[in-house]
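User: Can you help me understand a structure? I only have the sequence.
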Amino acid sequence: MMYDRKLNKAFDRVMMQIEQLTASSGELSKQAEETRLRNRELQEELEAERAARGSLKSWADQEIARLNESLVVEVSKAEAALRGRQQQRQGKLKRYCKDMVEVNRITSLANQSGCIKAYLEDIKEVGAQIFEARFQSLAADKAKYIAELGALDVVEVTDADFEVTPRRSFEPSSERVVADVAASLNQYGSHMSPQRCVADLSSGSSSDEEGEVRDPSTGEFLAPLSGNPVTPAAQT
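Assistant: Let's start by predicting it. Here is the structure, written out as tokens:
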């Protein structure tokens, strides 16, 4: 009888524990469901954030590409404008050169017409008694004006007219220095003038009875520098 009572108590205790475990498992299941829902919400928020970041990156890429295109367009416009201004300046310079050529030509024609007018006035005043010097001066002026007109007769101004001849190098070369030095030497290999050489040789040499000059160091006869015999009279 006591055994049954103890068994019933144990059974009731076990059933109570089972009910407690069941209740706690329900709460745990509820918490797990809430956790799953929270994780799903967080996953959706993460995907939305990733999508927003992707759209922001694509927008930044589009803006960078648009800025690069606009930069290329602006650079092309600036180059075209600079090229246009340069062409305009070159055109103005060419027109100025042509105008100056025309002005010089007109000036030369005006001078020639003035000479012709003066010539006609001289004919009116003097008639046929014009001096020969006047004819010669008029002929010289005519030749000069014809030469000037021929020099000013420019058909076209090209880009070659604006080229500058490169400056010649003034740095001396060894060949040119040797050639210049050798060309300036006299027959005795010296840069002194013949008169100076004669004076030096006469002052430091001895002469014999025939008037020839000997070198005091070697005793050899020295040939004259200018074809004239070297005499002791050069010492005076």
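Now, to help you interpret it: The longest strand covers residues 206-207. Residues 91-155 form one domain. Let me know which part you'd like to focus on.
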